[in-house]
Amino acid sequence: MTPAEVKAARLAMNMTQAQLAAALELSADSGRRTVRHWETDCGKFQITGPARVAIRLMLAANSEMRKST
Questions:
Q1: Cα–Cα distance, 33 to 62 (Å, whole number)
Q2: Fewer CB within a 10 Å sphere, N or C end of the chain?
Q3: 22: part of which helix (H) or strand (E)?
């Protein structure tokens, strides 16, 4: 995911960087820093693996919840 995709997904889920870090079970301090890097470091810190899958699943679930309300 690109930095813009990560930020767009987080905002679509109405989450702060800290909330996304917590949802992904990243440790408090380093988790917020990790999410911030994903969004701001021009793709230098690409989101991959389980975290990428988790964000996409959370975004899909959020979209489905919005459709049902």
A1: 24
A2: C
A3: helix 17-23
* Structure tokens given for 47: 């989101």
Note the pLDDT of residue 65. Answer: 72
CB count in 10 Å sphere of residue 5: 16
27 phi and psi angles, rounded to 5 deg:
-65, 155
22/24 Cα distance (integer angstroms): 5
Q: Which residues in the chain show pLDDT less than 50?
A: none
Q: Residues for the chain: how many in total?
A: 69
Question: What is the residue-wise DSSP string for 38-56?
Answer: HHHSTTTT---HHHHHHHH
Q: What is the pLDDT of residue 42?
A: 67
Q: Please give the Cα distance from 69 to 52 (Å, whole number).
A: 26
